[in-house]
Design goal:
Length: 380
Amino acid sequence: MSLAAYACDAARSRGRRHPEAPAPTRNDFQRDRDRIVHSTAFRRLVYKTQVFLNHEGDLFRTRLTHSIEVAQLARSIARPLGLNEDLVEAIALAHDLGHTPFGHAGQDALNECMAGHGGFEHNLQSLRVVDKLEERYPDFDGLNLCFETREGILKHCSRANAEKLEAQEPGGVGRRFLDRTQPALEAQLCNLADEIAYNAHDIDDGVRSGLITMEQVAEVPLFGRYHQEAMREHPRLQGRRLLYEAIRRMLSALVYDVIEATRERLAAVQPEDADAVRRAQPLVCFTAQARAQAAELKSFLFHNLYRHARVMDTTSQAQEAVRELFACYVAQPGEMQAGFTARADTHRAVADYIAGMTDRYALREHERLTGRRLLASGSA
């Protein structure tokens, strides 16, 4: 398939920080995707929390399955828009590489621990993983990914951290947060696909867990519309088949909505190339109605699932584990693996070490260092 003029073309990439000879059978974005899939950080995602801890059930999403779902949705949208599917896939698969164990609970606790030492941002940590922390090549740290892939991985960044990035890499991936320009369309698309994916799969996991019911979610207009459609067309459908059919219809509708809304903006702006996209307003979008309905669904999940008493109980214990691990490692850096012990910045080394942990490894380490068992099933 040919790319649209406004898409990122691997042949015109801004390149890698460390020059490399091209691969004989793959373009640079395909090569980035492959490096991400083979990375240690990517494999760890299988035991990192999305909403429910890994030991709470075999079928709940993890960061790994979430990332795969984001990649699938993003590619489905990229093709009809003429965007670069290889780049989209690479960004989607890498976007959560820097996430801590225990999901957002772990991230919040680690940010709190690092408050006097530069803080912790999981998007910045994902970039740090691919730029520095992966150790796979003889001539450089990290994965040496293309600028466009790195740009997409860094979804958010505080101004203070953007200034640090700019000082290290003038005109690099931190620059757009200072001059308020946009990332490439492929990066914009992955941001939206991420939102679509977690709204949909958190309904599935929430109902599976028993913390919310399908009937509750059906009162939210975005889901309720497709729930009613499915029941009208299949009056005998019930249970999980009904849930899956309603989610499938909702996902399809959101994908088509993004495609049509983005086409309209592209037609109005008519960017001549990828750099023109960066100078324009955000172009990958929902329609206003879909945006409002997606926000309403997100609010429902926040109040009824993410803040459910059972989730909050595990959240509290998970944050306790992260805080106590942090304190133990800062006091006794020798308890970390050797590569982290030797670093000059102890607090950042501890943050890197904890962020790289899976849920179950973090719990085992916490029990080893404190003698206390939190979230007991996690250390099995």
